[in-house]
Amino acid sequence: MSFARTYGPACLLVFLLLGVWEAVARIVNLGFILPSPTSVILKLLELKDVLFLEHLPATVSIIILGLTISIIIGVGIAVWMNLNRTIERTFYPLLISSQTIPIIALAPIFVLWFGYSIWSKVVVTVLITFFPITVNTYDGLKRASKNYQDLLLTMGANKRHIFFKLQVPASLPYFFSGLKVAVTLSVIGAAIGEWIGSQAGLGYFSRRMMTQFDGAGVFAPIVLLSLLGISLFVIVILLEKMLLKWRKFD
């Protein structure tokens, strides 16, 4: 299937929306409220040095650190719940309840606890991203075929063999599905943390431009955040295809 046939309709829709946005922005002519896409691009080029050399690395470091911690915690809890029924009954309701708390309301508390250091932003990112990783990995471990488990048991396999030979491979597609969600949420978590309290980062820079009523300056780092999220999503997809060669991808 050709690239044009696969992604053509989506690209056409994006260009159409950008065209409508450009036309409306020029008609309204209130750049501090609704900047046009061309003015945002020009502002992005104007601020490229400060955005790419100072604020983008700060945001990326938060995302990488937050995702790393989320993967360790999420996979660890999922495996623990899979191995112990009591742990599952204890932690699973708490996992669900943790997602009912508005993270943006907790972000100022983390600033009080950790100050303006990187850790206040990392904690926000972890709280947002660990849930899809945990739940999807746990579901994948539980979806391992019972028939294959019985077959392995008849062949003399123990629990360790079943876990590494059957459950882990079965859970990998689910893990990557959760990771795809987590990487996009990590950008949101980092931006929220930087908005609430930070001295660097794309979210911080967007908030600073807002205090100066610079509409294009507000949108420029947001565009970078969006591109960052898309890039991370593509990287996960490529990593999934590389590691799961046995799985059929359309």
Protein traits:
250 residues, mainly alpha, 2 domains, 10 helices, transmembrane, Hydroxymethylpyrimidine transport system permease protein, membrane, MetI-like, transport
Explain what the structure shows.
The protein is an all-alpha fold and 250 residues long. The protein folds into two domains: 1-30; 35-243, MetI-like fold, CATH 1.10.3720. 84% of the residues lie in helices and 0% in strands. α3 (48-83) runs antiparallel to α8 (159-196). The model has no long low-confidence stretch (mean pLDDT 85).
What overall form do the CA principal axes indicate? Answer: globular
The percent range for helix content is over 70%
- In this structure, how is the largest beta sheet organized? none
Tell me the CATH superfamily of the largest domain: MetI-like
Q: What's the overall average pLDDT, rounded?
A: 85
> Structural class from helices and strands?
mainly alpha
Q: How many beta-strand elements?
A: 0
Distance from first to last alpha carbon: 9 Å
Order of helices and strands: HHHHHHHHHH
Number of domains: 2
